[in-house]
Design goal:
The protein has two domains: 2-185 and 249-451, Up-down Bundle (Growth Hormone, Chain: A); 198-248. Helix content is 82%, strand content 0%. The protein has helices at 2-40, 44-72, 74-93, 98-126, 129-160, 164-168, 170-184, 199-217, 222-242, 253-257, 259-289, 294-301, 303-321, 324-342, 351-378, 385-415, 425-451. The chain is globular and about 60 Å long. The relative contact order is 0.15.
Length: 459
């Protein structure tokens, strides 16, 4: 019994630390983006690819890497992912050009997919069902802790040391995380050990997702339609292929007979798609339209993740006792209110109102995320937790990808690739409002998806 508790503590520490690193990096980079754009003279669209390239790579490989973890060992893939992520961070920090920076962000995305495809399944493997909500709540809280300190620390580092040092901070974090895994996390988890890895299916899935996501982010260019069509055709071919394979990379029966799994993933996709790019937009808005320093902008953006950090553990505990879909749906509705409030933000809006909007958004997302993740992970059998964990990460990354794609599309339509400057800040604000309106409509649909999922049996 004591060994079980020690293992649970170790798994929770590892999951929390790894959950902290990615969001910390992402929120730090958001604040540093204007400085990156200044150094490399990047327009709004190309600057968006600093984030988009990372998200695209992470989304394309999550499910295959989750399956590799099931077969060869989740801790093994996890450690390799930490190494790749740390190495890529150092390469980004010394990038000599915008092209090199974006390429290294792709490598960083692959490393993060290895981490997130295996970290949560490790946690689920060592915690019994009745304690998973609390464990997931604490893990999600660490995500928001990273989001909380990221804008402030990233803004401070960017302002006083330069944006490259934001990426250097990953080096000691990654080394410390590897040390903790070797010292504290004993054992290995490979519930599908000995099964064959579906290489062909993995390649079809990665190619289809890449084509679809890349096509979406290049709208309204003419080539975008062809890429999206090719991606959709690839997904159709993937489904037909997986139904014939004895040991597929993705067990499609989870989608045919598991309503909770399907609609919980759909709700996660919508929620991330409707919220992720808000920080990107507001970082540019505060620094370009309002003239705030990176450090000051980071302080304002703290409001949302602080609320998420405070209330995610509470939401996780609630999902152990109450039906997760009810808590998550309330959170989605509150998120919608926050998005509607942001539609009234302009260059003359007080910072107090903007911070209030972020507080509402943060509270809504905190109530949604932990219970929704609990519903997904609790709806599958033990042998499928690797795929379920990978699907959680995939919905997050694809949702973030769609979110950035919507923003890049609105910027492309209304601004072209012009740099965001005082003379065109009104056009930027209108672009921001258009994106936020699209997010609000998506969030409204997400409320219905959240309610339609059905119940899970608590134990």
């Amino acid at each position: 019994m004591e060994d079980d508790r020690r293992l649970q503590r170790a798994a929770l520490i590892v999951a929390a630390l790894s959950s902290f690193v990615g969001p910390f990096m992402g929120s730090s980079v958001n604040v540093a983006l204007p400085s990156i754009g200044d150094e490399f003279a990047m327009g709004a669209i190309r600057l968006g690819w600093v984030n988009t390239s990372y998200l695209l790579a992470a989304a394309a490989f999550l499910i295959p890497l989750g399956r590799l973890g099931d077969i060869f060992g989740r801790k093994r893939i996890y450690l390799q992912g930490v190494f790749v992520f740390t190495l890529a961070s150092a390469l980004v920090a010394i990038a000599p050009s915008s092209t090199a920076l974006i390429a290294f962000r792709v490598l960083q995305g692959i490393g993060s997919s290895m981490i997130f495809a295996t970290g949560m399944p490790i946690l689920i493997s060592v915690f019994p069902p009745g304690q998973r909500g609390r464990a997931l709540g604490l893990t999600v809280a660490s995500v928001y802790l990273g989001l909380s300190v990221g804008p402030f620390i990233g803004g401070f580092i960017t302002q006083h040391l330069g944006w490259r040092f934001v990426f250097w901070t990953n080096l000691p974090l990654g080394l410390f995380l590897m040390f903790v895994v070797f010292r504290m996390l004993k054992g290995e988890w490979a519930d599908a050990k000995g099964e064959k890895f579906d290489t062909t299916g993995s390649l079809i899935l990665a190619a289809s997702m890449t084509a679809t996501m890349y096509g979406f982010t290049t709208l309204p260019a003419l080539s975008a339609a062809a890429l999206i069509a090719a991606g959709i055709a690839g997904f159709v071919g993937f489904v037909r292929y997986e139904l014939r394979v004895t040991q597929p990379v993705m067990d499609l029966r989870l989608f045919r007979s598991n309503t909770v799994f399907v609609f919980s993933n759909l709700a996660a996709l919508v929620n991330y798609a409707a919220t992720f790019a808000v920080t990107f937009l507001l970082s540019l808005f505060l620094q370009r339209a309002r003239g705030l320093t990176p450090q000051a902008a980071g302080l304002v953006l703290l409001a949302q993740p602080i609320m998420q950090t405070m209330f995610s553990p509470l939401a996780g505990r609630l999902s152990d006792r109450a039906e997760p879909r009810n808590v998550a749906t309330i959170g989605m509705a509150i998120t919608l209110v926050g998005l509607l409030m942001l539609l009234f933000v302009n260059a003359a809006t007080s910072l107090a109102f903007l911070i209030t909007c972020l507080i509402v958004l943060g509270f809504g997302f905190a109530l949604f995320s932990s219970p929704n993740t609990h519903a997904i992970m609790g709806s599958v059998e033990r042998r499928d937790v690797g795929i379920a964990g990978a699907m959680v990460g995939t919905m997050r990354q694809v949702g973030m990808m769609f979110s950035m794609g919507i923003v890049m599309m609105t910027l492309a339509i209304m601004m072209g690739d012009a740099e965001i400057a005082p003379q065109n800040q009104e056009i930027f604000v209108r672009s921001m409002h258009l994106a936020l309106a699209i997010f609000a409509v998506m969030c409204l649909g997400g409320i219905f998806a959240s309610m339609a999922r059905g119940k899970i049996h608590q134990t």
